[in-house]
Design brief:
Largest sheet: 12 strands, mixed
Mean pLDDT: 91
Structural class: alpha/beta
Helix content: 25-40%
Radius of gyration: 24 Å
Shape: elongated
Oligomer: single chain
CATH architecture of the largest domain: 2-Layer Sandwich
Low-confidence stretches: 1-8
CATH class of the largest domain: Alpha Beta
């Protein structure tokens, strides 16, 4: 980075691994916002080394040294290593090597943090992870600093922009999952192999980090329930709207006395809640705490400049000497199994249209202690299978333990009058 014209005794010298979208965004911001960054950091931030196998900077960064070897970033002239290449093994080796040498790390790599974060947190290492979760939303800073005097009881987040874009397109345009996914890929919101996003793994890694920061538990995806969005249909979205909900893919973390639940899955969100209005690739996180009640943060969840902004916030804190070391794992973090959690449920039951069928379904639900809150059964939705007409019976239940719902669904699926797979989607109740 070209040195600032103002006289400064100190400079924060950084080395960057990778030159993808986020790294290019970081270089752009360092040039365009140089004066403000210098004022905020108390010194210029200068790029002195870049390790990249193929890409070249899109902006003029002066005399930065290029190399293909990651080891070049461990040189003595690098104060902070910024890991923006993604992946796991090489990133793990680079981060570990830098920390051993006493160099602070800033990374946007939620995958490597979810797998190896416990190795690096709680010691003397400085690891900046603001960019690893929810892009431009400063949720890590909020959990570390802004809410540090609160007992955090729960958080719910729309933390994968790909899933949110697909569900929004299906909901608002009536397009199929496959068509919405194809459009997301065309726009660059989804990878050629989208499984990491649409199967919920990306959101699960982010939730593991958020839960660790919120509850002081180890970073872990063990015992986390993970479900993607491929089973959600346009019909489900339409019925959800009619019942007063939107369907979004969310991560949920909750404190249950001495245990903690972490789960990622599609959820019905009340249309009256602001989170239900979060659309497209936007992210949102709502946090419930004992002092402030609840607070909602909404913003861009990905993209070069928003994520680069988060990287810069960590670099500026490091320059100021105010970057707090991460403290997680103080609580044991015993997890509540998904079968022990409570929710309301949306059910879509394909049932033969004849007298007594609804009574059979109601009897099974009653035996399992499940009450019906709302139900929709439309004659115009009638279809035929093997010559016999059937209709979807759509309902929202009152709160019930998941194990009881599992038992009820097993019994319902065995009924001769039920034709096809029953679709179940949990309802996200933020205040419970």
């Amino acid at each position: 980075m070209t040195k600032n014209s103002l006289p400064h005794e100190k400079v924060l010298r950084i080395g960057i691994a990778g030159l993808g979208t986020v790294a290019q965004g970081l270089l752009t911001l360092l040039v365009e916002n140089a004066e403000r960054i210098t004022r905020q950091a108390g010194m210029p931030i200068e790029v002195v080394r870049i390790a990249s196998r193929s890409m070249k900077p899109k902006v003029d960064i002066g005399e930065a040294l290029f190399d293909t070897a990651l080891e070049s970033l461990l040189h003595d002239d690098v104060d902070v290593v910024v890991e923006l290449m993604g992946g796991s093994d090489a990133a793990h080796e680079l981060i570990s090597s830098a920390l051993i040498r006493g160099k602070p790390i800033v990374t946007a790599n939620k995958a490597v943090l979810a797998e190896y974060g416990n190795e690096w947190f709680n010691g003397n290492a400085t690891v900046g992870i603001e960019a690893a979760v929810a892009g431009g939303i400063p949720i890590v800073s909020i959990l570390k600093n802004g809410l540090s005097g609160n007992r955090i009881d729960w958080l719910v987040g729309i933390i994968n922009g790909t899933c949110n874009y697909i569900l929004t397109a299906m909901d608002e345009q009536g397009t199929s999952f496959a068509s919405a996914l194809a459009k997301a890929q065309e726009l660059g919101y989804a990878e050629a192999d989208p499984g990491f996003d649409v199967d919920g793994v990306d959101a699960a890694q982010k939730l593991a980090l958020l839960a660790a920061l919120a509850f002081d538990i180890p970073v872990s995806m063990d015992d986390m329930y993970i479900e993607g969005i491929s089973g959600v249909t346009v019909e489900d979205l339409r019925y959800a709207r009619e019942l007063g909900f939107r369907i979004r893919h969310v991560g949920i973390a909750r404190r249950n006395e001495e245990k903690f639940e972490t789960r990622v899955h599609p959820s019905l969100i009340p249309a009256t809640d602001l989170v239900g209005d979060v659309s497209g690739v936007a992210n949102a996180v709502i946090v419930g705490a004992n002092a402030i009640g609840s607070v909602l943060l909404v913003g861009p969840g990905a993209g070069g400049l928003p994520t680069a902004s988060a990287v810069l916030s960590d670099l500026i804190e490091i320059a100021r000497g105010t970057c707090q070391r991460l403290r997680t794992g103080q609580n044991e973090g015993i997890r509540t199994a998904i079968t022990a959690t409570e929710s309301r449920y949306y059910l879509n039951i394909p049932a033969v249209d004849r007298p007594g069928v609804f009574g059979e379904i109601g009897d099974i639900l009653r035996r399992e202690g499940i009450s019906i809150e709302a139900v929709i059964q439309k004659p115009e939705a009638m279809r035929r299978s093997d010559g016999e007409p059937w209709v979807p019976i759509v309902m929202v239940t009152e709160r019930v333990v998941e194990a009881s719902m599992d038992d009820a669904l097993d019994q319902l699926s065995s009924l001769e009058s039920v034709r096809g797979q029953i679709r179940r989607i949990r309802v996200a109740d933020f205040d419970r």
